[in-house]
Amino acid sequence: MRLALAQARAALDTGDVPVGAVVLDRSGSVVGTGRNAREATGDPTAHAEILALRHAAATMSQGWRLAGTTLLVTLEPCPMCAGAVLAARVSRLVFGAYDERAGAVGSTWDLVRDRQVAVRPEVIGGVLAEPCGALLLDFFAGHRQPGTAALGRPAKPDADRPGAG
Ligand SMILES: [Zn+2]
Q1: Distance from residue 47's CA to the centre of ligand 1 (Å)
Q2: Beta strand 20-24 with 30-35: parallel, antiparallel or unpaired?
Q3: How far does the centroid of ligand 1 lie from the alpha carbon of residue 62, in Å?
Q4: Which of 26, 28, 36, 158 lies 20 to 30 Å (CA to CA) from residue 1?
Q5: Annotated catalytic residue: which of 39, 49, 76, 122?
Q6: pTM (2 decimals)?
C-alpha cells in the first residue's frame, strides 16, 4: 500500500486527484502500477485501478485473466473500477480510504460482493486509510476558495469528487 501511496502522490504532478494502485502477482511481486491520470491524459476512464490492471496484464503476458493477483488501491474503487476488478478476475482487493459518496465496495454500492457475482474477490478495506484519505483531503482543501478550507467535505462536493477511484 505504501507503493500505491507513492503512485497517488505522483498523480499530483499532473494536477490529478491523488489515487494510486498496485497489482501483485501470486508471489507478491509488483506486476502493475497505476495512478489517476484523467487530467494528464484527458481520458475519463484513466483511473488508477484501470491503468494498473492494464499494466499487470501486459507484464504477466497470460492474457486478460489476472486470477491470483492482488489489487491494492488508496481509495475505495468506484463502480467502473469495481467492475474491472471482476472482469479481470482479480483474487484479492485491498483498499485504503473509504469513499462514502461513490465507493462501490461497501460504501454506496457493493458490486464485488453482490449475490449475482459468481466469483467474488476477497476484500480488505481501510488499510492505511488515514494517510490515503489525508492525501485526498489535502488535495481538495487546496482546490477550495481561501477561507473555506476547514477539514471535512469538499466545498463543492459535486464538482471534483468523486470518481478518481
Ligand atoms: Zn474508478
Answers
A1: 5
A2: antiparallel
A3: 24
A4: 158
A5: 49
A6: 0.86
Q: Are 48 and 21 in contact (CB under 8 A)?
A: yes
C-alpha cell at 46: 484513466
E runs forming strands in 51-141: 70-75, 92-97, 122-124
Strand-pair category, 70-75 with 20-24: antiparallel
What sections of 61-128 are H helices per DSSP? 79-87
Q: Which residues pair with 34 in a beta bridge?
A: 21
Q: Which distant-in-sequence residues (6+ apart) come within 8 Å of 153 by Cβ?
A: none
pLDDT for 90-148, tens place per residue?
999 999 999 999 999 999 999 999 999 988 999 999 999 999 999 999 999 988 755 44
Give 128's Cβ-side CA count (13 Å radius): 16
Cα-to-centroid distance, 49 and ligand 1 (Å): 6
Chain centroid offset of residue 86 CA? 14
φ/ψ of 71, rounded to 5, equals -105, 125
- Distance (angstroms) between ligand 1 centre and the Cα of 163 equals 6
Does 122 qualify as catalytic in the annotation?
no
Note the residue count of the chain. 165
